Each structure stands twice: as C-alpha cells, then as structure tokens.
Structure prediction request, 222 residues.
Amino acid sequence: MADTVEIQSGTGAPVGSVIWLHGLGADGHDFEPIVPELALEDRLPLRFVFPHAPVRPVTINGGMSMRAWYDIVNLGLDGPADEAGILDSAARLESLIDRERERGIARDRVVVAGFSQGGAIALHVALASTERLAGLMALSTYLPMPDHIATGPTAGPRHTDMPVYMAHGQFDPVVPIAAGRASLGIVESLGYKVEWHDYPMAHGVCPQEIIDIRRWLRAAFA
Prediction:
C-alpha cells in the first residue's frame, strides 16, 4: 500500500473521495495546497488522498532514484513503455480505491486524478475499470500502453457515462500538447464524452484550471 497524504474539504463525514497522483520526482504533498484553493462548499465534504509514488531508478534521469510511478526510458512518449512499472502502480491505485470502499466510500463515489506521470496511471486504471468510478481527471498527461486498453486483457464493457476531465498546457515542454490531444482522441474513440481544456501555460496548473476543476468536481459528485 502506498503511503498517502490526506486532507478533507468541508465538514462532516466525506461523501466521496478524490485519489490524486503526482508527477515524476514529486510526492504526495505536491497537490495538497490545491484543496483549499478549490474552495468546495461544506455541503460537499470530500476526502482527498495524495499517494507517494515508490522510489525507483529513472533511466531518462541517468538512473537516479526518485519517486516515480514507472520508469521512462527516453524523451519520446512513443518509445517502449515500462509495462511492469505501469501495472504495478495501477495495482497500487486499485488498492487505494479498495481502501476507500473499506472506509465507506463506494467505488462510484471515487474520482481518480493525476498530473503528468500520475495522470497516465489514472487514465490507465479508470479506462480499464470493470466498475464505474465517479470520474477521471487527467492533467497534462497521456495514455500509456493504449493498445492494452483498447484490445488487451482489460478490453471489455465500459462505463462511458463516467465524467472525464482532461486538461493540458498549450506550451507544455515536458508532455507536448499533441500527446494530450492524441490521448483525448483515444478516450473519445472508446465512447467517453470528455470535457477538454487547454490553457496558455507550460507544464503545471493555472488559476483558471482550478476554477474549472472545482466546477467539474461539483458536477461529478452531484
């Protein structure tokens, strides 16, 4: 089980959970400050769970060990994927979803979210899920191993009514917006209706995006 940082919005028992995965080299504290910025009402108490990725060597960074959801071998996102690392982190996220169920939050009241590398894992898990989630939020990211989702062992009936929010920076030098748009096309081809936004920013999150996420979360948990 991954170690986590947790923070709750609103007051009272949570009515849903958001499991939010950070990007390469960061940790679970990275998006913790965004919860108060979302300014969610007391009537929508949510548990935000920010897991720490395991520490592992990352080839693209000279083999340096850092928090990473999977290894990255080269700059090209179309290069060989670290299938073992992706599936390991997908299993970690599934375990966290199961833990929320044990704490009284049904799977269809859990949003999986992630930024960059964390968003890749969120995309993989949400699209492969055999049970409906409350929503998928994929920020500045791409879908790894798309064939695994479309025709592989996880292919099957899909809950295409699941809300999906995807966003990307127009000037992203880390994950080019073309990769985000290509992944958007794949998700839409699977039957999901995606709320897509791109913003005049690099590889990060901007104030307008926070406003849009707030509105989307309210709708996802309505």
Q: What stands out?
A: DSSP finds six helices and nine strands in the chain.
